[in-house]
Amino acid sequence: MRTKSLPLLLILFFISTTVFSQEAVVKGVILNEENQPVVGASISHGDEGTLSDFNGYYLMEIPANEDVTLTFSHVGNKKIEVTLNLGANEDFELNPVMSTNVEQIATVVISGRERKRIEGITTISPEAIRKIPGANAGVENLLKSLPGVNSNNELSTQYAVRGGNYDENLVYVNEIEVYRPFLIRSGQQEGLGFVNSDLTSNVDFSAGGFQAKYGDKLSSVLDITYRRPADFSASADLSLLGASVSAGGISNDGRLTGIVGLRYRDNSLLVDAKQTETNFKPRFADAQTYLTYKVSNKFELGFLGNVSINSYDYEPLTRQTNFGTIADPVALLVFYEGQEQDRYNTYFGAFKGTYVASENYTAKFIASAYQTTEQEYYDILAEYRLGEVNTNIGDEDLGEVEFTEGIGGQLTHARNDLDALIFNAEHKGTVNIDENTIEYGVKYTHEDIRDRVQEYEIIDSAGFSIRPPIADFANNQPYEPYTSPIVPYTTIRAQNDVQIDRVSGYAQWSRRTTLGSNDIWLNAGVRAHNWNVSGDGIESTSQTVFSPRGQVSLKPDWDMDMLFRLSGGLYHQPPFYRELRDSTGTVRPDVKAQQSIHIVLGNDYSFDLWGRPFRLNSELYYKSLSDVNPYTLENVRIRYRANNNAVAYAYGLDARLAGEFVPGTESWVSFGYLKTEENIDDRGYIFRPTDQRLKFAVLFQDYVKIIPDLKMYLNLVYNTGLPGGSPSYADPYDYQVRLPDYKRADLGVSYVIVNDKKLRDNGFLKPFKELTIGAEIFNIFDVQNSITNTFVRDVYTKVQYSIPNYLTPRVFNVRLTAKF
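-> structure tokens emitted (820 positions)
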């Protein structure tokens, strides 16, 4: 058992002070008649005053226990006066709505959404996340409908962005970085992603060219904000795949807020529909909470906690996969013995302190601890028959294997254990000086990983053990005795105890100005990252990298609402533990940070069509990568070579048209083109494992006009095939084939029994604020998508067949959603 001191958490309390002055705080958001934030509004009383920020937010201290008249004024809007009498230390929220005068002066209003548009960030509606159907519904499910975001596995919550892999994406919840398990090999083992959509109030996503304030990864940023309840609320979501419940509330004095969510998921419905007959017991459960407490008028303390317990018991029995052509059909029939038992338990806790020193300076302190204990145990013997299939229609043996062309067996074994403990301590600050905003941060991370990997695979063909493809041996029997030892086809044995210490920081500057009659926003920043790798039997190694980044956004003074954006810089990804471990399980501490010169040219065009708002977002991007760490990808398991022996590039175009195709609902159509190749050891350029050449996606919401409470949700994705399907040991230069195209459509239909327009005054429906019942059809066209191949040999012709491992077929689900 580990014993660790937690001095890092004490940093949160350095700023805590007790406020004895007889003052109160008024805060809120100032909106106009169109429900947009009013920027730069003046809030004053006597000689004191402040201004609202880009989000329309303001905060002001006023004397307590006396009448105070606040005046809200803004050019082009009518003045508002409000008289308040607040108690000592009272925290009062006031959200005024300003109306316009006849002689309104035209001004540019920068709302929160506009600011994100300037930064190149896509905002996704949390309500759409909760409603759109998917085999693994949630934030990641909706991300896969965005251009540039690719995934060929509906059972997985992982995604690749613009040619990167699953390890190249940053995820934050309330500015706190979160992690995922290490040993996951296949999508059906994943269960639940970290982000709980029931607790989410805002989802921001950037596919590249992001600012220096975000961390050191190569591909993307997912920035989640959990909600802060204004009153008590609760929700429940029940389906054949599991259940989730959440609740939130606020104390009487308004100082304490809290939300909590519980989730349980069972993937049996999806996996039982696959071609392998199994005894399958997947159990995935987690509990999350986010609490905030207003210590004083200037200091707030937050806590994010998560406990996840995942159990995956898998006992395959039989499998039959038909492949080949109509003229020459072939079937693989497999009989299994043995089982797999996996456990993935994670524990995460983080404190966040926010200190508003003044209207021009805000300081934040974050400390977090993450622990994951994982085991992957399996012994599975697969005995197969490869043969011709009876295709005589009307024959009682239709579909059965009539003639066996090959027989063999495969024994796979693993005893893998991993225990990782990660501590973070971080300080961030924001300073406003006139039209300039300066942001900075410094972060310390300690990673302690203990890992044991023991795997082997034995392949038998017609009673002969097949040796590894790279083995060097000679067998001249019966003329010479065969003395070489019998070895597994593949084997990995390693035990590692590794510690990694990191110090990183950033500083960036932003400014809004004008260029003639055009508005322009500037941003420039730099990140620095130093890390040291040490451990049992490992020579201590330190490295440092610097990452300059910048953005320029221009909004021309045109009649049309058009914005142009140029962003990019030098991005680094210092290696995490998995990137330090090569294919033999050996840790290589001198692995360098992969680096990418990233350039993004973007355009956002907002317009009205059919009298409704639409937005067309498009981005051209180019990446030039060096010190690339090549890897193999099998399902969702990544294995690195850990030697930085490649260079690569990626370029493409992303476009998304979003708007109200149906009045009152948001839908979108996405298109992405990508090409990414790598050159390993100067042998020439070949496809990278995530070279997803074309991508189309449609997310569509509709309702029946004569029955508006009957709603429909469609999630459709088409991806061209990924390179792959080759054995993990194979030379990628010998296997440049692609998997079949990925085609999937999920449909959801629901009926609203209760909502804010249909509240019930009596009966058992009275407690409900919302009640919806519906049905979902996953993979409605029953397309056979494959994610990997199984390789078997024909003992007669010596041909090696690649047999696809199919994903989920058509599956039906029912769902009940309620809010209280």
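The longest strand covers residues 401-433.
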